[in-house]
Amino acid sequence: MSNPLTHLTIIPDGDRRWSVLNSVDSATAYIKGMEVLESVVKWAFEKKILYVSFWVLSIENDKRSSDWRMMFFGLLKKYLRPKCQAMFDQNIAVKIIGDWRALENIKGDIEDILAQNPSNPAMTVIFFLRYSGTWDLCQAAAEMDKYHDKPEHILNYLQTRVQNIPDPEVLIRTSGVDRLSDYMMVQCANTELYFLDKLWPDFTAKDCDEILETFQKVERRNGK
User: Fold this and answer.
1) pTM, rounded to two decimals
2) Which residues touch 145 (CB under 8 Å, ≥6 apart)?
3) If residue 156 lies in a helix (H) or strand (E), which one and from where to where?
């Protein structure tokens, strides 16, 4: 049995705990996490996986301290443009999903990034930024009402569906947390879930290989 993997999604959790365990500041841990993210994108590109996505920021993260927010958004401001440009240079497109327009300090950067995407990409990387599944359903309901559409069509207005992103076949969450935490709840209805004890900065391409090998052996019936 061999299951096709079109969309791999990841909740890259554990940067802050990694910083404590390794006696480094949070910014250093997040930079290490970015390097891991790049290695996963490289792995997925080599495996010809068409979509790989990462939950970068949840709406719940608004509750974190002002110091954390200053550090985190400072890193986004510094690295988001050049990292995306490096992907464009490899013919990799970038999509950003969520309520990111509320992020005044990086909204302009995101708008510029989205305008530079390659027209015929070999692969697409999706960043979920200031996103939650509940928010997605609420905005979908508002859009459905605006167009006077039928309630049974609400899923057509989820941001992933609007942008023609297929539902993920595989979800990985690091750091030993075994829950979705309000991430793509509808889209992950039939997704294979893999929860790892490893913290995100310690995640490797070898972990991806092992999960892919396990996934290939799963009997995916989707209710049939």
Assistant:
1) 0.96
2) none
3) none
